[in-house]
Design a protein that fits this description.
The chain has 13 helices and two strands; from the N terminus they run E-H-H-H-H-H-H-H-H-H-H-H-H-H-E. Helix 1 packs antiparallel against helix 13, helix 3 packs parallel to helix 7 and helix 3 packs across helix 12. The longest helix has 30 residues.
Length: 363
């Protein structure tokens, strides 16, 4: 007579979740942030012997401590959000536009060129119209070149757009060396030719423009035919072709939209904020915007919150370094830990780990 033995062993496998209710997703993200703050607090204590609560209070002070800090926070959120809106249509279509940095710079370069050469020759209203048109057109050209090559010759858009960033940086550098006569390579600000100041607040117009653009892009992606075509092309080009969507047209048109939004960001940075330009005007926002868009799952409304989080961490980290005379690296570690936990929690929003007991019969 044969005896049978049943051995039970635990097995783990990953299963894709059904979409979670919004409140559960919010709770998971909140738990990730709390856990990140606890871990970051432990590391701060071990590395610096500082009170973590005092460090977090310093971060809040860096973002909200004074009116000027609040306005600076809102301005930086607006610019980052604008660039995030720009990359979102392309990313939703799975066109990996990594060239927002260069597209913003080209918009800013066009803006400052108009300010420099036409500023004292035209009335301000006409000058502003030309600035807007030049900025948007320059960025569209910079964005649509990779789109055309992708649509007709299937080039790698990631490498193409990345390389366009370096070309844009060098064009700005050449402009400064050629037209700044002092030899310093620093172009003096020209606020007299910039965007108007509303109610005494320099950044208010920027914030209002980006708020309006956020609503417009949300409606464009969610409720228009073009937004639907972007979603279909992103899901499957074969399906898009089958139902009669012209994929080449959609790719080029979408990058025109992305370029136009980058042009507006360049206009706001140069015409509304700095009133000048240098090779660091975009400040890496073109790459940060990719993370903002991805964390928000390409939803323009959610991007408001992800933009706020990123900018808050940046501002707070700078204040921590100043208040405690700590190396910037410590602040970067705190920021990195928080972002790591937030990005990591996306796994638990999309997947779950299932534990099961498997029985095996051995003779």
């Amino acid at each position: 007579m044969q005896s049978t033995k049943q051995k039970k062993a635990l097995s783990f496998h990953i299963v894709k979740r059904d979409p979670l209710p919004w409140y559960k997703g919010l709770a998971i993200r909140a738990a990730a942030i709390v856990l990140a703050l606890v871990v970051a607090g432990v590391i701060i204590t071990l590395l610096t012997d500082k009170n973590p609560l005092a460090v977090y209070a310093s971060m809040l002070d860096g973002a909200f401590g004074m009116d000027i800090r609040i306005w600076s926070l809102l301005q930086d959120i607006a610019i980052l959000l604008c660039i995030s809106l720009a990359v979102t249509p392309a990313f939703k279509m799975k066109f990996w536009n990594c060239g927002a940095e260069g597209q913003v710079l080209m918009g800013g370069l066009a803006t400052v060129t108009v300010m420099m050469f036409l500023g004292d020759k035209l009335p301000l209203p006409l000058l502003l119209v030309i600035m807007i048109a030049a900025s948007i057109l320059a960025s569209i050209i910079w964005a649509v070149l990779p789109a055309i090559c992708k649509a007709y010759w299937n080039t790698n858009e990631t490498l193409f757009t990345l390389m366009m960033n370096y070309v844009a940086i060098q064009l700005v550098s050449y402009f400064l060396k050629t037209f700044v006569k002092t030899g310093s390579g620093v172009l003096s600000p020209m606020p007299q030719f910039g965007l108007p100041v509303l109610f005494g607040h320099q950044y208010l117009l920027n914030i209002i423009i980006v708020a309006v653009l956020t609503v417009v892009v949300y409606i464009y992606l969610k409720y228009t035919k073009q937004g639907y075509e972007i979603a279909v092309v992103g899901e499957s080009e074969n399906t898009a072709n089958y139902i009669g969507i012209n994929v080449k047209k959609v790719v080029i048109r979408t990058l025109i939209v992305s370029g136009a939004l980058c042009g507006i960001a360049g206009l706001l940075l140069v015409g509304g904020t700095n009133h000048t330009i240098n090779t660091e005007t975009a400040g890496g926002r073109g790459f940060t915007a990719i993370m903002v868009s991805w964390l928000a799952k390409f939803n323009p409304i959610f991007m408001v919150f992800t933009s706020f989080l990123i900018v808050f961490l940046q501002k707070g980290s700078q204040q921590v370094s100043t208040d405690f005379r700590l190396p910037q690296a410590i602040s970067d570690i705190v920021t990195g830990i928080i972002l790591f936990f937030i990005i990591g929690c996306e796994f638990f929003l999309n997947y779950k780990i299932v534990v099961s007991k498997n029985g095996k019969e051995n003779a």
